[in-house]
Model the fold of this input.
Amino acid sequence: MKYLNDTIVMKRMKSRLTVNKVWKTIFLVATLLALLTLVILLVRIVSQGTSYLSPDFFTNFGSRFPEKAGIKAALIGSIYLMLIIAPVSMILGVGTAIYLEEYAKKNKFTSFIQMNISNLAGVPSIVFGLLGLTIFVRMLMLGKSLLAAGFTMSLLILPVIIVASQEAIRSVPKEQREASYGMGATKWQTIIRVVLPAAIPGILTGSILALSRAVGETAPLVVLGIPVILQFLPDGVLSQFTALPMQIYDWAKRPQEAFQFVASAGIIVLMFFLVIMNSIAIFIRNKFQKRY
Amino acid sequence: MVILANKTNNKEIVKVKKPSLLITNSTQKVEKDSVISTSNFNLWYGQHHALKDINLEMKEKEVTAIIGPSGCGKSTYIKALNRMVELVPIVKTSGEINYRGRNIFDTSYEVEELRTRVGMVFQKPNPFPKSIYDNIAYGPRIHGIKNKKILDEIVEKSLRGAAIWDEVKDRLNQNAFSLSGGQQQRICIARCLAIEPDVILMDEPTSALDPISTLKVEELVQGLKNNYSIIIVTHNMQQAARISDKTAFFLNGEVVEFDQTDSIFSAPKDQRTEDYISGRFG
Done:
């Protein structure tokens, strides 16, 4: 006997297809809304900011006059900051991920640590700012230096790097490890010759995305008390500095309208910075990803 | 009924194929050295008693097949022989497995040392995503060989040993993933030969391969027997009958019968063995 009645099937066909179309439209609208917001934002920033984007903008220090205000100190400061955050957060983050995935025994204690790392990723950045202020600026007396801010930002993105690296390490098939152990390789040899080469694209992608979050982060810098108008470049890790988001924040809150345009120019520079970093992440992922 | 008929056919195939192939095996009557001897060996995964009082003795330069239905502990047992089973954290063992007279579970016995002598080929071909050359050179390199000339020689010798040299000699720098499944498995066998092991463990090495590749691996095992002691787990009884000298039949974590392959297949002593090889279950 047949369970599907042809006439009923045909009768329901139309309404099924309509429902299908309705949902497709809803999803499309959702996508378009997000896209539209982004476009409005970009158009506004670009139209406001481009007039201030001149070679002088990159070579001038901060100033009380919008025409003379430049982003040199902030741009260089942000680059220096990256140079501290990248090695500190990656060495600690990847090291932790390797320990948790390859060495640590799976017990209640490690799953407790694991849970806390995931939770740390959701802690507001301003809390990390307060932590940095207490520990690095005051207790370790590093002052409002590149090092203090670099350490604070490293702590902020550490959980993200750990989780991304763990996932990359976990995605290396168990058979690959078995092959290596089966030939008498030690754990370290297996990690350095088999696991890391296969996991490195994932680790780098996650780390670069985390780093680009650190570049755009403002709240911790505000809490640390990073200055906004500096007339010199940092000359060492203990030197004072300012950073792109700090500078933009300062410009945006000034009363003169012209500074809004300067802020837009700063945002363009910051976005360009982020686009470059994300492109590097995508490039690495596509180029080095191994498929099993 | 249909299923039953099929299984009776199986039985006939097994019996018909036996005699012609076993003549070569039974000509070697010289008493050989024991390589691996297992005594009163037990293994638990957590609460599950996976291996019960195993007593087996494997001789030098012989092929020992381990057969049995799924979940009987045959893979667990072979993985215990090079302590790969310890990668599962909840494993507990008792009793002894002696490799050339030394208990491998002795605290002074480093697993890395054991696995250098007792190599393994896995169920699913698992080459590294590296070139063919680097795959074979992996073992020698981890054991400290850096000289390019020596590595070249090891790579060629191992690939020849695994009967795949002619197929890959012109593309040693190609990624091993570009090879077919059967070729990959022979690359894995070559990779195992490169550490110059004494014993080769094979955990269902042909279960992921097509019949032609399976045949090639079986021929290879026959050749390797002259230089290595081989222990092979297989689902396929005909395969055990074709390539092994001795066969152990595992059931529910116990060794039901262990004997010369021809006796196991022509005159099994235990009713359960007979039921299994005649295809009445499993």
